[in-house]
């Protein structure tokens, strides 16, 4: 069917930006062995260094541990600590056999204190064994498309074959931040929870929450084998950035540099929101027209200074009756003539 194409230039001040200096990209450099800067909304990689190299991930493992738990149990679920989790090596919440706590309390201990015994306790509760829980972690990794990640345990303690890449960790971090419960926990600087009948306070190891304006997470990690690992995230003016470093001598400096670069170079554009873009299409055989509009809202992160335009592709002939919600065309968005998004145009009312 022949289509009519309408072209409009979005000239709203909201979509106007200034061009930044080209030197910003040249100035970005990080000391980490592997690094990624990602737009947390579009999942576009904005900067990377050896991002596909498989490396140990230490306690950034607990990001996936938390996600599997959140998708398996309610925060209010109360469980008893399995004796096999007591005395786990490394960072600990010093759980005792028979301690009771909620999943919410356990996740604060897991993600703020980075407690390995809590990681194992949650694994026994959800997966009945460390191996069973690791299988769930790997299943979720495949679901998210993390092809270069393999989990052997829920804590991140060194184990042969337990590895990931900076790229995979960035995708994982971005996905987890879309879970409001996860975001609430990792953005908390300290939290007092109850384990059995005692109050316990856990302080977040992630110094980005204090050092960097707009920081919202995510998770630190360290072993002798992995070096310093960090998944970070920050949000400003609608732009959410996710940063990852593996084996970094100064991870706080690396992440601050990547975040500064991202916020300087990129901005969030609202392509449309509910009923913000309305188009009238004539209906054959009557004097009526039908109003169409994209559904919902779409934001996208782009470099400053982009000219955003939209072309409307619609059938050359629309005949009545038209049902409300019928797809009658497509809105195609461009940034400097490069296609960046397309979405159906739906009738907002019926035409008889």
Can you give a write-up of this model?
The protein is an alpha+beta fold. The protein has helices at 23-27, 62-70, 103-113, 116-127, 130-143, 166-177, 180-186, 208-211, 251-265; strands spanning 3-9, 34-39, 45-49, 78-80, 100-102, 190-195, 198-203, 215-223, 227-236, 239-248, 266-272, 279-282, 289-293, 298-303, 308-315, 327-335, 338-347. The chain starts with a strand and ends in a 5-residue tail after the last strand.
List keywords for this structure.
about 350 residues; alpha+beta; six-stranded antiparallel beta sheet; five-stranded antiparallel beta sheet; 17 strands
The largest sheet is: 6 strands, antiparallel
- N-end to C-end Cα span: 22 Å
Count all strands and give the number. Answer: 17
Q: Count of helices? A: 9
What amount of the residues lies in strands?
Answer: 25-35%
Physical arrangement of strands within the biggest beta sheet: 1-15-16-17-13-12
Task: List the SSEs and their pairings.
Layout: E1 3-9, H1 23-27, E2 34-39, E3 45-49, H2 62-70, E4 78-80, E5 100-102, H3 103-113, H4 116-127, H5 130-143, H6 166-177, H7 180-186, E6 190-195, E7 198-203, H8 208-211, E8 215-223, E9 227-236, E10 239-248, H9 251-265, E11 266-272, E12 279-282, E13 289-293, E14 298-303, E15 308-315, E16 327-335, E17 338-347
Antiparallel strand pairs: 1-15, 2-3, 2-10, 4-5, 6-7, 8-9, 9-10, 11-14, 12-13, 13-17, 15-16, 16-17
Helix pairs in contact: 2-3, 3-4, 4-5
Give a quick summary of the entry:
The chain is of the alpha+beta class and 352 residues long. It is 25% helix and 32% strand. The protein is elongated and about 80 Å long.
């Amino acid at each position: 069917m022949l289509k009519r194409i309408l072209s409009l230039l979005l000239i709203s001040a909201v979509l106007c930006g200034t061009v930044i200096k080209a030197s910003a990209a040249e100035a970005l450099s990080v000391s980490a062995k592997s690094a990624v800067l990602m737009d947390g909304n579009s999942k576009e990689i904005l900067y990377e260094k050896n991002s596909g190299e498989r490396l140990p991930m230490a306690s950034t493992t607990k990001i996936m541990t938390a996600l599997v738990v959140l998708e398996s149990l309610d925060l209010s679920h109360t469980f008893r600590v399995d004796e096999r989790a007591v005395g786990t090596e490394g960072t600990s919440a010093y759980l005792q056999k028979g301690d009771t706590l909620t999943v919410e309390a356990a996740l604060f201990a897991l993600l703020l204190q980075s407690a390995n015994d809590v990681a194992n306790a949650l694994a026994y509760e959800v997966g009945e064994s460390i191996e069973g829980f690791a299988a769930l972690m790997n299943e979720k990794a495949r679901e998210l498309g993390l092809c270069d990640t393999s989990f052997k345990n829920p804590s991140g303690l060194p184990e042969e074959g337990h590895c990931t890449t900076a790229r995979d960790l960035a995708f994982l971090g971005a996905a987890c931040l879309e879970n409001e419960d996860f975001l609430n926990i990792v953005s908390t600087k300290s939290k007092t929870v109850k384990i059995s009948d005692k109050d316990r306070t856990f302080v977040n190891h992630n110094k980005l929450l204090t050092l960097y304006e707009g920081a919202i997470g995510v998770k630190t990690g360290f072993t002798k084998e992995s070096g310093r690992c960090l998944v970070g995230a920050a949000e400003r003016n609608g732009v959410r950035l996710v940063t990852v470093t593996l084996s970094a001598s100064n991870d706080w400096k690396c992440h601050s540099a990547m975040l500064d670069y991202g916020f300087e170079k990129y901005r969030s554009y609202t392509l449309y929101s509910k009923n913000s873009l309305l188009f009238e299409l004539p209906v054959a055989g009557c004097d009526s027209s039908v109003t169409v509009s994209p559904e919902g809202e779409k934001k996208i992160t782009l470099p400053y200074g982009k000219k955003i335009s939209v072309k409307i592709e619609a059938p050359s002939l629309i005949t009545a009756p038209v049902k409300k919600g019928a797809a009658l065309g497509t809105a195609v968005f461009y940034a400097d003539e490069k296609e960046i998004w397309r979405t159906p145009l739906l009738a907002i009312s019926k035409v008889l």
